Fold these 2 entries.
Entry 1:
Amino acid sequence: MWQPVLFGLGQKERRHTPYMVQPEYRIYEMNKRLQSRTEDSDNLWWDAFATEFFEDDATLTLSFCLEDGPKRYTIGRTLIPRYFSTVFEGGVTDLYYILKHSKESYHNSSITVDCDQCAMVTQHGKPMFTKVCTEGRLILEFTFDDLMRIKTWHFTIRQYRELVPRSILAMHAQDPQVLDQLSKNITRMGLTNFTLNYLRLCVILEPMQELMSRHKTYNLSPRDCLKTCLFQKWQRMVAPPAEPTRQPTTKRRKRKNSTSSTSNSSAGNTANSTGSKKKTPAANLSLSSQVPGLGAIPTCSLNPGRDGDLCHSAAVTPSGQFKEKH
């Protein structure tokens, strides 16, 4: 006799398909992964981090304004792991993101998260113990699948604050040099000098990704890789644009009935009246059999006639011979 099976606390129910999670939960998982970083984390660890949370064709964009004007840096997937590692190389011991009042919009193959009140919080251990809160707008685009990885990351920085504990100020209250050092900012728009220098370097490295990839794939010299890339780019520039495919029209064109202007075109009228689609070649027609009497067929010649006309008529005898008539 069959009995129902109840899943208790000691038993786990199997899931046949992975369940979808909220996009904000993916940021929470990324924060936990960043907290599990150690000082011994190498490039392989950062590559695994980027593979888990970013698509293969993902892009990361940072927009902010410095003293010399607005800046905008966009890096590709191969440079994203190094970007996060430079944050910690600049003296940061902890990094996490806080999203407040974010809006989600679902599309066919992606999910967009727009958070106007995003805060990137970094804890600095050197040159002094400081907490930096970088506020701005974060727009994320996730792929709508089981992995739910980030496809585009755009963080626009508006303002930042550097917080120093009061206990440190009290310890160095009698030291003017230390107080003067504590009053200076250790970041620029919430980013360390290591990160800013790397973003400037990415302006040069990003266009060279195609050369590096070709060198790694085909084992070509740098000069040959450059020649090949330039030749392919030139081919794309001079190639004509592809014409859009046009759907064939289904309208049928009406056939116009042509009327004969001559008196001896009875063969063509007979073919039109019967509705036959095949046309008899002119070489198989016998003028003697089609025309019992004499007929006048207008012909044109390059030699002018007696009156100076280029066109004259020729009479056809019953035997099929032409007799010119002017």
Note: Residues 1-19, 259-264, 273-316 have pLDDT under 50 and may be disordered.
Entry 2:
Amino acid sequence: MQPENDTWVSEFLLLGLSKESELQSIIFGLFLSMYLITVFGNLLIILAISSDFHLHTPMYFFLANLSFADICVTSTTVPKMLLNVQTQSQVITYAGCITQMHFFIIFSGLDIYLLAVMAYDRFVAICHPLQYMVIMNPRLCGLLLLVSWITNVLHSLLQTSIVLQLSFCKKAEISHFFCELNQMIQLACSDSFLYNMVMYFVAVLLGGGPLPGILYSYSRIVSSIIGISSAQGKYKAFSTCASHLSVVSLFFCSGLGVYLSSAAPHSSHTSAVASVMYTVVTPMLNPFIYSLRNRDIKRALKRVTGVPVM
């Protein structure tokens, strides 16, 4: 995977979240804890859904895939960071950096697409309840998942091919704890203006596409809930999408915070700290959000673990 450019580097330096040596043990313990909670929490969700026949519905099918994507998003970034802290090394190879960036783009994009698909699922369930199982049939669910995968794999291949065309300086230091696409392009020694334009255009076209779908779905959902006469009916309708709405808000608000912080001058470190929210914290919180407000998940988790869920 050697780039065809004049200035070739064999490795990058990931500067991480802090240069203070006394903070490294705290960062290691904190991120190791969050990573283990993320992996085991989302694995429990997948296991609970797969083992309970009552949860073999479109909503939980997409939730299980979201949990899988959350595990993968965190696993592409945190283990390497923990290894670097433990070995007191900041080095990541060129091939390793490109690979990490490639898979991060795939799974973070898959997260966004699955959230959009789940918003559509809630829209159909609330606005067309009698036709729900007809519309959200297994064939459509599989097709939506397949399209999400193909779109994000192609998106990642395109963005990765852009980075492979760039020349990098001999001292390639990335002010982040993983190889983030925007940081990689900013690091290039060659003129990256055209690549920046292509990157942002593709990101807005493919990455921003699901957001209007989510907003439209929830605008229709809100309209339908307002039209329900009884307070109990409104509460029941809202409770079916409250967990998903919480996850969507957390994901997009944290992502928006990252890009707003990256727009400020000298903000690489601020952006790296802010990105912890959507790369680590949000995947960790998703199992709690979906299990604490969902009786079906609670029941399935109790059956799997033998421990009552609060």
Note: The beta strands are 11-14, 91-93, 173-174.
